[in-house]
Amino acid sequence: MNIDILKGRRILVVDDEEHIRSILKDEMEELGMEVMEASNGDEAFDIIKSSEIDIIISDVRMPVASGMKLLEHLSTLEKKPRTIMISGFSDLTIDKAKEMGAHGIMAKPFHFDAILEQMALVLSSKAS
């Protein structure tokens, strides 16, 4: 896997669990990425409206505004960041996220290396 494509990229990690956001942020920043955090889909959308983001990594299930709600918000934008959804739930959730425009889906629990691989794959993909 060539993770050089990730260096300098702007990443938004969206999860209601602060420790997950913190771990991902620390690991990604060590690899040269710029990382922002949000605790729900509404907070994430506010960040996206005011910042250029390359990839969003979002949990599906969160209080206040879910990852699915975030995908709904993103559908209103002309230029959408690449989105990887993380879910511990059913195939139905995965299928729905894909229908709503998610570029990648990962199951919980996940390994950090798998997230990096998915991010590199999503960025190198020509599909929008």
Strand residue percentage:
15-25%
Q: What class do helices, strands and sheet pairing give? A: alpha/beta
CATH superfamily placement: Response regulator
Largest sheet geometry: 5 strands, parallel
- CATH architectural arrangement: 3-Layer(aba) Sandwich
What oligomeric arrangement do these chains adopt?
Answer: single chain
Which parts are unreliable, with pLDDT below 50 for 5 consecutive residues or more?
Answer: none
Distance between the termini: 21 Å
| Total strands | 5
Shape: globular
Mean pLDDT over the full residue set = 88
List the secondary-structure elements in sequence, H or E.
EHEHEHEHEH
Helix content: 40-55%
Number of individual domains: 1
CATH class: Alpha Beta
| Strand numbers in spatial order across the main sheet | 2-1-3-4-5
Examine the coordinates and then state which fold CATH places here, giving the name of the CATH topology: Rossmann fold
Round the Cα radius of gyration to an integer and report it. 13 Å
Give a structural overview.
The chain has 128 residues and is an alpha/beta fold. It has a single domain, classed as Response regulator (Rossmann fold, 3-Layer(aba) Sandwich). The chain contains 5 helices and 5 strands; from the N terminus they run E-H-E-H-E-H-E-H-E-H. It has helices at residues 18-30, 41-50, 67-74, 91-99, 112-124, and strands at residues 10-14, 34-38, 55-59, 82-87, 104-107. A 5-stranded parallel β-sheet has the order 2-1-3-4-5, with helices on both faces. Strand 3, helix 3 (67-74) and strand 4 form a beta-alpha-beta unit. Helix 2 (41-50) runs parallel beside helix 3 (67-74). The longest helix is centred in the N-terminal third of the chain and has 13 residues, at 18-30. It is globular, with a radius of gyration of 13 Å.
